[in-house]
Amino acid sequence: MTISNSATSWINVPVNSDFSIQNLPFGIFKANGNKPRVGIAIGNDIVDLKALFDLGYLSSLSFTGEDLEYEFLNKVMAHGKQGTRALRLRVGELLDASNNELQGNADHVSNVIVSQSSAEMLLPVQVGDYTDFYSSREHATNVGTMFRDPDNALLPNWLHIPVGYHGRASSIVVSGTPIHRPKGQQKPNEDEPPVWGPCKLLDFELEMAFVTFEGKPLGDSISTDEADDYIFGMCLFNDWSARDIQKWEYVPLGPFLAKNFASTVSPWIVTLDALEQFRIPGPVQEPKIQSYLEYKGNKHIDIKLEVSIETETGEDNVICNSNYKHMYWNMNQQLAHHSVNGCNIKCGDMMASGTISGLTEDSYGSMLELSWKGTKPLKMKDGSERKFIQDNDTVIMRGHCEKDGVRVGFGEVAGKILPAK
Known about the structure:
The chain has about 425 residues and is of the alpha+beta class.
């Protein structure tokens, strides 16, 4: 199920690389004039799985060449947990320093190994449906404190259900895709009519997302015990947010234009198997939760997260250091709640965590919190200040797990904001 922590690869893996042999995440890439195809990251390189298949190295598995030469991971994911696990473990076996099967054939190596620097990374998954949760207690408390009542910051349902809403799948884009500042209605003054124009309070939201295998038929539900079998893996997720548009439109039905203009994902999907050793206990959940949300074992994950703003001058300013372990509701609970009413989960569905904030001010996962609604501007290295995201700013998120000398990371997700069209 997992790759040994003592394993090393004959492929060079730089120190502190996110893509160790213990990781082996899946993605979609284009290189050398070929069609989009499935790859696995190792160090600074990519293993071309279609080339590996054509050379006969994957003949013992159930995958076809068509599965591996496709523009999304969905055909690979259609083989389910056991299929993708066997594929990842087979690649790990071939990359192991003690295995001469592939490394002993220089011609095969040159056909199979592609430098990441020469490849174009594409959106990894064809997302059918996208759900955004709201599962960080610290974030929900901060927002409630700012906009409602500091003494009753959490809404009455928050400690009882993993709150979520259905988002827009069509505007999910891969890291590196520029985003135009959205436009919409805003109401800057309570006693004046709304105005229309470009968003003035553009924000990022630091999130993680998970991607599902095919679920159960309509009418059936997935339990917290079963959830791991229906989750393929995770990626970094920037859920861009237009705060001024959202403030005016969210009553009574919630986010709409403020959220559907873009969300950005990292290109590599890190499997749940690769994250197993970084599991940790979750928070004590009080008041007592409903029985269908109860779970066994450690289902939270220690993932260190970082956000930086690269200004137009090219300087990188780290503005947030947070951790996925701060989540109140875990993925198993989110998936169980999502399907408890019989909602059918499909292969390629994407479910995001909601903004991930910690207890300290430097761990807040949005500009709304970091600048405390614009009252505490952030200083940049070039002398400028930020209350929210400005045109030509690039927001970069990074994340990794590290334990006992083993690092499993997600790479980065980056997006540059262009002026409104």
